[in-house]
C-alpha cells in the first residue's frame, strides 16, 4: 500500500511539473488569456492568410476551431466547457443565443468599420440594432440546374420542381427548414409558417414530389451535382457558386415565389476571456481589403459594400449571388420558432424522408 501511495504522489508531482513547464512555455511565447483569441467558425470559412495577418498586426495568437452545424455550435457553447471569444452562428441561432443569454453586447464604438456594412443587412429581426452580432457572410437558398440533363428546361419557380418530366432528377439538401420552406413557398406560404393546416399541406405537397427526388443528401450534394449525377439540386448559394466553378453546365436561380435569405454573423460568447481581442478581430474582418480577400477565398456573398467594390466586376455584378433590393425584399430570414415548433418541422421532414424510402 505504501508503494502505491508513493507511486500516486510521484505521478502527481510529475503532472504538476509538466503543467508548470507548459505554463512557463506559454508565458515565454507571450500567450495568455489577453493575447490569445479562440475562434469558433464553420469549416473552410475564412482565408487562412487573414488569420496570419491578424496575428502579426495585433500580436494576438489565434486558436481556430470549426463546427459543422449551428446545433453543434450551440451545444458546445451552452455546455461552457470550452471558452470561445468569437463565434459565427446563423441568424436563427443568434436569436436563440440572445434569448438564452449566451452572448455579450458588442461595443460598436470599437468596431468603426461597421460603417462598411450595407444597411440592408443591419437591424434585422434576429438581432435588432445589431446589439449582439455583426454581419459576416450572407446568401440564399435556391435551385442549381443542369439544362443538359433536364431537356433544356430553365426552372424559375419552386413549382417547376414538381414537373413529372424531372423524375429522379432532384437532389435535396438534408435540412428540415430548407425542404419544408421550399414546399411552403411553392404554396404561397411563409417559410416561418406555424399554422398546422398549412404545415400539413406542405408535407403533403412534398409527398407528391417524391418521384422526382433522387436523394436527400448532405455535403456530398456538391460533388454529385458537379459530376452530373442529377440535373437539379436545392442548395445554398455559396455551395452553388462552388459547384458551378466545377461544371460550366450548371446555373443557379432564386425562385420567383421567394426563398430564404440567410446571414452568418460574428458574435462574442458570454464565456469570452478576450473581449477586447474579439472586437479587434471583428473590426479587422470588416476592413474592406480583408473582407474582399475573404469573399474571394470563401466564395460567399459579402455584406460589406466597400469590399464589394474591390471584387472583380463579374463577381459583384452577378445577380444570382448579389441580387438587388427588389429581389431580397421578397426573401425571408428563418425565425427562431422555438424548440417545440422546430421539433415539429423536423418530424414532418422525417415523415417525408421515410416516405421517400
Automatic annotation (TrEMBL):
Its main location: periplasm. Keywords: Periplasm, Signal, Transport. It is found in: Periplasm. InterPro entries: SBP, Sperm_putr-bd. CDD domains: PBP2_PotD_PotF_like_2. This is ABC transporter substrate-binding protein. It comes from Exiguobacterium antarcticum. The lineage of its organism: Bacteria, Bacillati, Bacillota, Bacilli, Bacillales.
